[in-house]
Here is the input.
Amino acid sequence: MRQAGRSARIFEAASGVGGTWYWNRYPGARCDVESLEYSYQFDEALQQEWKWSERYSTQPEILEYLNHVCDRFDLRGNIQFDTRVTTARFDEGSSRWQVRTDHGDDVSAQFVVMATGCLSSANTPDIAGLATFAGDVFHTGQWPHEPVDFTGKRVAVVGTGSSGIQAIPVIAEQAAELFVFQRTASYTMPSSNGPLDPDEEAAIKADYAGFRARNRLMPAALGSQWEGNPDSVLAVDDDTRERAFEEGWQKGGFAFLRSYPDLLLSHEANKHAADFARAKIRSLVDDPAVAKLLSPHIVVGCKRPCIDTGYYATFNLPHVHLVDVSTTPIDTITEHGVRVGDDEYEVDAIVFATGFDAMTGSLLRIDIRGRDGAALRDAWEAGPVTYLGLGIAGFPNLFTVSGPGSPSVLTNMVVSIEQHVDWIADCIEYLHTHGRRSIEATPEAQAAWVGHVNGIAAMTLFNDPGCNSWYLGANIPGKTRVFMPLIGFPPYVEKCDDVVAHDYDGFVLS
Ligand code: NA7
Here is the structure.
């Protein structure tokens, strides 16, 4: 906006920049996308000069990077921290938004850009008795800034998604006793993390633009360096398949799931990958009963796969206990611990690694009112509806960065965010140069787009009835089950560009 000569005010609930990387300070927090990819590409000098230390960056290092970017481009002065936007109302008379904050700001703006994040509304389950617990309670997504020391403590971790799986091995190093409460076993692949290879870094930096361009052509906007097999997993013999899976597993990260192109397209194909992963678990966990409990039953990849460092080996430690809460849920939190059925687990601290009200949570916490005072909460009651994940019918001049209906969380988020930010900035420029005051998605274009997003999801296993992922909102009681992101980054970018090329086809400019 500054480059375009426009004024912008930025409101941020936190005391500093960083978003996800500001809040998720839990032990072991690390990115699941490689460092040389999980970084901005808008400035060549920035991407050349910044030095990452590991293949997968830790939370403190990414936060340091984001603070560096903020200062390098002199953005801090435009940001009002510790301020939460409470309402945003569109005034049809002036065609402007009235934005209010919990600090009493009352701001009139022509455009509002919601950069509120996809995983920013922490979900703490409503378990009876939580307020009576005498020890410390944490949520991985709202971790304190002061150091937390679990040395000598008995600790409960509730949740075994990405956050739990990263935190558990690190907490286990300190805790005297660790109880892990698992409702659904996740698939997790080794990160094969290590110091960033200087040769690999030099090779990428020698043609960073080329590397970025190749990644933008990948379905998830990442991983062009991994060679997948073009054939169906069903078309190869057992040895070939096992070799390819092993190679993917050893490479680390999401490479395993990229071994074959059809793993998320057919149950038969998926079962091969799931069986391979379950065999790995049996080989890594000493106690067969524990290995069995840790073995997922769901489709591999229908939830975002986790990337770990030493997760399974942690369960071979004598002071680490896995508690199955799949059939008997956590009943109550007592003064001294966690009760499951007739058993009470006495602990000094409880860590909720229970995820987020994803993709819509933070938007809907703000009272957003469009034309005729209509509430976004009502418009999205049966699940979010958008056009391109960028605009919403009835809500003119409101943009959502990585909104539902865009590839967002199924991609390298930084790439998706930059694509959206560029699109929005270009759009605002276009409106100014063409003497238009407002842009609004048409209900028809929006309905067609939602149908398209759902239609693609229906061709995959992401919608599998056995899979209660946050992509589907199925992790939040009462939330409508609908697959929110769009699968496939490159065709999406083409569509966005095409919409622009056709004078913002599907939007009304007035
Ligand atoms: P996730 O992936 O949503 O994981 C949350 C975990 O918490 C998951 O294992 C849940 O089990 C579990 N959970 C939630 N509520 C309960 C209750 N009431 N009892 C027991 N267990 C519960 O969140 P993360 O923070 O780990 O990761 C989110 C994303 O951040 C991740 O995908 C990466 O993209 C980064 P469930 O599976 O619902 O049975």
